[in-house]
Amino acid sequence: MKHSTCRLTVRGYELDSFGHVNNAVYLQYAETALWNFMKIHQLMSVTDMLFPVVMESTQRYLHELKLFDEIRIESDFSSSGSVLVCEHKIYHDGTGILSCRIKGKVIFVSRDRIMHDVPEEIMKILEEGNS
Amino acid sequence: MKHSTCRLTVRGYELDSFGHVNNAVYLQYAETALWNFMKIHQLMSVTDMLFPVVMESTQRYLHELKLFDEIRIESDFSSSGSVLVCEHKIYHDGTGILSCRIKGKVIFVSRDRIMHDVPEEIMKILEEGNS
Amino acid sequence: MKHSTCRLTVRGYELDSFGHVNNAVYLQYAETALWNFMKIHQLMSVTDMLFPVVMESTQRYLHELKLFDEIRIESDFSSSGSVLVCEHKIYHDGTGILSCRIKGKVIFVSRDRIMHDVPEEIMKILEEGNS
Amino acid sequence: MKHSTCRLTVRGYELDSFGHVNNAVYLQYAETALWNFMKIHQLMSVTDMLFPVVMESTQRYLHELKLFDEIRIESDFSSSGSVLVCEHKIYHDGTGILSCRIKGKVIFVSRDRIMHDVPEEIMKILEEGNS
């Protein structure tokens, strides 16, 4: 398992007509956290061949987010078979309030739509653990 | 429980860099199916006072969607306590292949962020059932 | 010059916190009108090699659009040098009120980022005119 | 006239199927720059009564942006009659290359859709100039 942190600021166009961050946007935040993890660990070259595809995702929305809220995404990445399991907690950074929990299952697929194992480069990072 | 059907066509900007509909977009489709249900049953006036807010959602992505795919969303709406339960199946309309299953739990919240029961007008429609 | 018509319905998540369609969404509508033109005239195979890239765009927003509004996009496509000129008028279909005018200039670029002429297949359609 | 700077990082879901930032997303960046200006100068309370609405916008796209690009938006805000004129230059921050120029005209509208003058609080900031 490998932990990773990602920070974002809520942007105006992410709000819906109720004036808070729309539920679909949280999946975009989760995706950003995954790309961020890939970038930090120099794993972006993986995506030349394989693309991460979400197979399953569950979100629990606990507290709304608003314009300019600074958010902190704490993510744990692990593998289970050929699945990369992504567990995100999205916090309002100022107050520390938990806004959303997301559990996603991601597989790696080639351009010709063949499913592959979690790439070795990623497995190595996961096995390293959090030092 | 009340059933409802909604049809959409995949638009170019809904694709991500892998060339298929991005996982977050499916939540937008689910939201569209809910608004469509509200509209068909003349429930839009409810939203003058109360706003539907997603508390929880689980998606299982089974088959990718691509540009111009015609999709059919078959939705079952029911209530459980003060929660509106929305179960969507998103089909590729041409082939009949199931692309995604979504189960969402929606609550109704006033502008001052107080949670309310499922509005009576909606309960009436749910109790009507599918004739 | 070739004329083309495209119809869409405004979706809930396209509204911003002011309760009307966000200005950026109109460019997505324009993009949808272009893809629709490509599809109608069996030009999609062009995009295996070349991708339409917007170089310039001007929008005049005249009348707001709201949830469930049925819109009709009337588009004129023409060429000027190696540029595809796209002139869109977005109407509220029920009232016939003009909501937005968009003039876009699109070029065709290969995966290796080389700019090409407007593809012959498209030129043929433009020269056909409106019969 | 008042100058303002805003920094963003390109997020994965902002890319389209050509692998670069979609043209519509630049308007979201411009909107973010405007909200940022409002926030920096403590003008957010203005939006309790009046909402900034884009009347017109012209974009010239000069250089594509890709995943993780750090961007810097240099914006000049001025008034012309009852219009707030927003001139944005979007730079790739690492290389200093200009990616896009946007000129937007924004008006201020109340919830009942009446157009107002540029609010006094904003006029004061514009007249202050850049010290």
Task: Give structural notes.
Chain A is an alpha+beta fold. Chain A has one domain (2-128): Thiol Ester Dehydrase, Chain A. Helices cover 21% and strands 43% of the residues of chain A. Chain A has two helices and six strands, in the order βαβββββα. Chain A has helices at 23-40, 120-128, and strands at residues 2-9, 50-61, 70-80, 83-92, 98-110, 115-116. In chain A, strands 1, 2, 3, 4, 5 and 6 form a six-stranded antiparallel β-sheet that branches. The mean pLDDT of chain A is 95. Chains A and B meet through α1 and β2 of A and α1 and β2 of B.
Concise summary:
Chain A is α+β, with helices and mostly antiparallel strands. Chain A is built from two helices and six strands.
